Amino acid sequence: MNSLPVTAVPDMPVFSSVHRTGAASLRRTETVRPGMCGPLQSFVACVGDWTWEAVSAVCGLDVFSARNPQGEPCYLAFYSYRITANGLHPGDLTFGDKIVVDTLVRDSGRLSVLTAHRLRREDAGEHPPFDLAELYGAPRPGCLYVENLNVWLTRGEGTGNVGLIRSAPTGFEHRSLPSLPERYSPRVLCAQAREQGRFPHPGGGPWSAPAPQQVFEQPVDAVRDVNGAGLLYFASFFSLAEAAVLRQWRSRGLDLHAHRGRLLADARICYLGNADVDAQLTVTAATSFAPADSHRERCDVSVCDQGTGRTIALAAFDHHIPLPPPRAAP
Predict the structure, then answer these.
(1) Where along the chain do its domains lie?
(2) Residues 6+ apart with CB under 8 A from 58
(3) Best CA proximity match to 103, nearest among 92, 90, 117
(4) Could you give the CA distance from residue 47 to residue 36 in angstroms, rounded to a whole number?
(5) How many angstroms from the chain centroid is the CA of residue 228?
(6) Which residues have CB under 8 Å from 56's CB, separation 6+?
(7) What pLDDT does 175 receive?
(8) 207 to each of 84, 146, 184, 312, how far by Cα in Å?
């Protein structure tokens, strides 16, 4: 009796791989999947997961299931999240793109860590090792940078989201991490934003406002905005801010296709608190233009919890508006 022919099973494609490149650094190679691109929230959430994975790898504990000595869950909460583009923008990424991500983790003191990621296309050639001097002073062309400052929190008394307190999880080893120089700490900008109600504008003269600020109310969306721990999801704040930016754009009578054509140069959020799942939020957005470049636009956004009167997030989005293509000669 003849046996059936054996068909070789093809190797499974590798869509993600990661390895250590140092005591506090990693490199991963990724294929961009649908859940990583498109809406900015998707990109932000994906990189946030990489941050938790990186801290798990270099700090000796599983961040995803961390608990304090009392057995209560601890969360490596996002305090500051910044995206900086230098030739590669979040909107450039699409299905199937191959990217290389270099990651650094630094001890930022006070139960916090800073994680920095450099993204570049795999076919962009070799780059020198990633360091903080590059991130903060000499970004390389064709790269996209993400900076996260995270702090360990747990719920206080009760089960609400308002009274979060700092709490170190069991097994969190951070003293062996290189320290973050104070001059690089995002805390300085966040403190200024908290004091002024917005992030400072770059120098060069006053920024002009093309339209009045807009204020609108919306409830927490319990379907979209709440994570598996029952907290407002850090990435959802990007959706709230982007929706406010879009409202500002439309209030000026501008075209939606032109809105999609803008390039995100810099985006940052400082998280000042959380809110309960039934909270009503007030979102305020104000747009301004750079004094010497009308194609450089900033939108400042604040998110306030109406029930407590607290500002729970401040955001700033800087976009470059491309020049229209030249008209063909008659």
Answers:
(1) 12-183, 186-330
(2) 20, 23, 24, 25, 26, 105, 177
(3) 117
(4) 8
(5) 19
(6) 62, 63, 64
(7) 84
(8) 20, 26, 26, 25
Q: What is the pLDDT of residues 214-228, one digit of tens each?
A: 999 999 999 999 999
Burial of 269 (0-12, 13-18, 19+ CB in 10 A): buried
Asked if residues 181 and 136 have their Cβ atoms less than 8 Å apart, the reply is no
Shared fold status for 12-183 and 186-330: yes
Instruction: Pick out the chain residues at pLDDT < 70.
Output: 1-9, 204-205, 323-330
Which is nearest to 239 in space by CA: 251, 231, 247, 229? Answer: 247
State the CATH class of domain 186-330: alpha beta
Q: What architecture is the 12-183 domain classified under in CATH?
A: Roll (3.10)
Percent helix / strand / coil, the chain, rounded to 5: 20, 35, 40
pLDDT digits (tens, 9 = 90+) for 14-47: 899 999 999 999 999 999 999 999 999 999 999 9
